[in-house]
Every structure is written in C-alpha cells, then in structure tokens.
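User: Last request for today: this protein with zinc ion, please.
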Amino acid sequence: MKTTKMKSKVFISIVSLLLVGVFMIPLAGCTADNTAKESKANTSAADKAKADGIDYMVLVNKTNKLPDDWEKKLETVTFTNSVKDRVEVEKKAYDAYLKLKADLEKDGVKVDLDSARRSVKEQQRIMDDFTKEYGADYAAKTVAKPGYSEHHTGLALDLYLIVDGKDITENEDMIKYTDIWDTIHSKLADYGFILRYLDGKEHITGYGYEPWHIRYIDDVNKAKVITDKGITFEEYLGKAKSADLKIDYGKSKIYSKEDLEDAVIQLKCQFANYEGSVLKNIRYAGDKVFTNKNLKWINKKDPEAKYTQVVEFFTDFHTPKDTKGTTLEPDHEYKDYQWWLARTEDDGWQVVSFGY
Ligand SMILES: [Zn+2]
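Assistant: Here's the final one, the structure of the complex with zinc ion:
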C-alpha cells in the first residue's frame, strides 16, 4: 500500500456526509465471473435435454437471471482439460470451440478451457459454504449470486493459455499476453463467439476486463456485428445505451492515477446494477475527503474490514423509463450522485456506500 503524505485540509463536507446513502452493497464489484477451481461439475444434463432447445442469445448478468427452465433444456458435454480438471460445456458451444482452437493452433496459439458451466445448485452450495465459513456479508462480496452468472448457461467459456508447453491459468499471468489475446479475439466471431467483458465497459457489463471470458451466441453474423462495433452484448440487445463517458481523476497528492482508476472500475461494476442507466460523468471528489472522521465513518459501516483509505466520487447519469427493482426514479437526471470506496492494507477498493 502506498504511504500517504496528506496535508491536513480538515475541511469535511458535512453536507455530503449527511446526504450519503445508507445502502450497503448488495453485490460484489468486479468479482471475476469464473467458476472456482473446486467446482468439478460433472452431472451431464444431456439426458434431460429437450427438443425445443435453448435460446443462444440469452442474457445472463448481474440483473438478468438464468431462465428457470434452462437447466432442463441444456445439453452438455464434459471433458478433461490439460490440467486434469473436468469441464462441462454446452454441446454446440463445444463444437464451435474445438474449431476455434484448431484454427488458433494453425497460428501457433494454444488454448484450453479452464471452466465453462456451473449449475445454479453448485453456485448455491458454494454460497452456503462461504456464508457458513465467513458470514453472509463476505459471501455476498466474494461469490456470484446463484442464478446470475453467465457460466450457468454453459455458453460462457474461460480460456487459458498454453505457452511453450506451460499452462498459464492464473488471471494475473494470462493478462500479460496481449498479443496472443489479440489473435484469439480476432477469430472469435468466425465461430459464433464474442468477447464478453470489454475494457472500459464495466458500468454496462458489471465485470472488469476479462480477455479469457468468451461467450457463444451461435450466430456468426451477429457476432461479427457486435465485434466490429466494439459494443457489449447488453448494448446489442438494447439493454444498455452507449454514452460518451467522461472521467475526471482530478489532481491527487495521495493516490496515483492507477489507484483512482482501480477505484473507478469498482464503482463502474457496481453501477451496472442500474440496468439501462446511462453513465455520463465520473469525478474524483478530491483529497479533502480523506480525513480521520470519514475513515471512522466508513469503518463503522463495515466493522470487520479495517479500512485505511477512503475516496469519494461524484457521478451524473440518466435513468431509463423503467427502474423497477432499484430505488432509482425513472427517466431522471441524477447529478452529483455519490460513491464512497475504501480499501484495507491488503485488499483492493470496495464500494462501501453510495447515494445522496
Ligand atoms: Zn468467466
């Protein structure tokens, strides 16, 4: 953690303190949408498959749940990957993946599948285990809510790389191979896949950039349109509108630009819960909010966390005509809506409070 040389500008915006919302976060920020290593789903649902099939254009994200009859209709195949994990994939997605993999090998790029499908039941079991072990708050922050992970569909695939015969499976290692990912991404649409979690679109997808998470949509033409336009699946389906988002990081003597960018990504992941809202501006509130008083206040909201740093951002956004399921007013222009994030010595930024 960075040491802070803070000038004591003791000005506290009492107004903003009073106005800050009291909502605690319902969901984690940018928790990766991958399936845990302990997940060894091997209950093939092929025998339960139905003739009418699944909707390959289904949207499952933090605000759109897996259809109830999905798992009954789903046909999957299960195989063992190079690190000896069992992986379950929707049937057609698997065929398309094998073609993509063969094509990539011609270019000297080797990939395998880290994880694909996880059942809702399995996700619930993990949620229950985490709740028992660490409490409900921690579980809600760490584990994707059962029913709301794209991995339930069997159509979301997490790739990993094999470079010089070595399996590269950790996210922080994989992300460094930008040239390899460029090659992979350039071929996705040819096989009906799209890249799902785009860099900079966290406020729409709810996830940070994941070059390895691809999604099968069973339509090469649609995949090409989505890829060529550089839009998210949500935007293609009309669930989100693109706006020219402006981010003002201000001038901080406490935090580096990278620190503030990390915080903004967490904020944006949380914002994705406001489905259909158009985010226009994000502004750093300034170093003046990093006070002992604010630190005490933020620690009271989450007594176990032991936060050592706190930041505030303002946002401007417009809500859609339908905001049911949220506390937001419909078709409303929100100005200076506040987001408070904090971090501990060891962990990244978390949204702790937001609102007016
Ligand atoms: Zn994933």
